[in-house]
Design a protein that fits this description.
Blueprint lengths: L3 H27 L12 H57 L8 H19 L24
Helix pairs in contact: 2-3
Length: 150
């Protein structure tokens, strides 16, 4: 049961993140943004400008969601890293405890079993720690040329 605890906590966190991401998608699909109406003298130009403005606002919202998700992922990875370091520290404490005589005396076999179980549990806490690959360096944007006005 104790070996399942880290797996269950990871699955729970994953399902919470997936649920929060999915709750935004149906709301957007249920209320699609109507296309802009062009009513003045140059309808194609206005339609394109409105479409660009709409796409820019959608892109900004998507970037914000990405940043929020990335922040949550970074926090989760930091938490897991702290858990791994705590497990490593506890393994050292178990070794010191055994050297100081914890497993000696009456019913010593049960304490040896306890130490072995704790070592196995906390040893598993350190394996499989997810790491993100380093982000690629940002590509420089090409300068935009302004159209000549005559």
């Amino acid at each position: 049961m104790k070996k399942l605890l880290p797996v269950l906590s990871f699955l729970t966190l994953s399902s919470v993140v997936a649920f929060s991401l999915r709750t935004n998608a149906p709301a957007q699909a249920a209320h699609p943004t109507p296309p802009p109406q062009a009513t003045q003298s140059s309808p194609p130009a206005q339609g394109l400008e409105a479409r660009v403005a709409l796409l820019e606002s959608e892109l900004a919202a998507e970037k914000q969601r990405h940043d929020e998700t990335r922040m949550l992922l970074d926090q989760s990875l930091a938490y897991l890293e702290k858990q791994s370091k705590a497990a490593q520290t506890l393994l050292g404490v178990l070794d010191v405890s055994e050297k100081e005589g914890f497993a000696v005396g009456e019913n010593w076999g049960s304490r040896v079993t306890l130490l072995a179980g704790l070592r196995a549990y906390w040893g598993d806490q350190q394996s499989g720690l997810p790491k993100l690959p380093a982000p690629p360096p940002p590509q420089p944007a090409e300068p935009r040329r302004r159209a000549r006005q005559e």
